[in-house]
Amino acid sequence: MAELRTEEEQLDALKNWWKENGKALMLGVGAAVVIVVGWQGWQSRQATNAAQASILYQSLIESVVVDLDEGRAQTSETVQHLGERLKAEHPKTTYAQYAALILARASVQSNNNEAALAELDWVLANSKEDDIKRVATLRKAKILLGEQKAEEALSLMDSIEPASFSVVYHELRGDAYFLQEDIEAARREYDLALAANTGDARPILQMKRDDLGSGSGS
Known about the structure:
One of its GO terms (molecular function) is protein-containing complex binding. The chain is an all-alpha fold.
């Protein structure tokens, strides 16, 4: 603009520039506004969704406590209803995945393994968190072992890394090999489970290992 000497020339130049670039500029500004407003709206919806899921989950936990206090052998309709609502309305939240784990455990206690496996499969299909997937996988493996499906349980556990669940992981693998009468492999897995245990004593695990003796050379 340095070569323009008069205000008229500057104004004419500005008009020409606006004709060439004004529309694109306004479109860009409009798009930016839409993006900002859309982002804020998305954040607001996410916060609302999380709050609603949290309230439902709190109600679910309170209902579970009531069931326990009253000594109910089976899950109440309230617990089932709240769990299903969480899964249906907030399927991608951690609350819904924990709810499914609770429903799976309740189904096992009611001797309904089919329903329990369905809940655990739902968790595996919907969760993005590795630890939740590990919990669901190990619980599913335990159910399969209860049904004498050792090979299927081992194959399932092969799909995960144990991470912080090493004790349970190796103990269940030991149980699977014991069912297959592979005593050496069972010993190895129980030893790994005991070595990984840094918490409270696990007398049942220790008893399983002791029952298998010291090895083929004993």
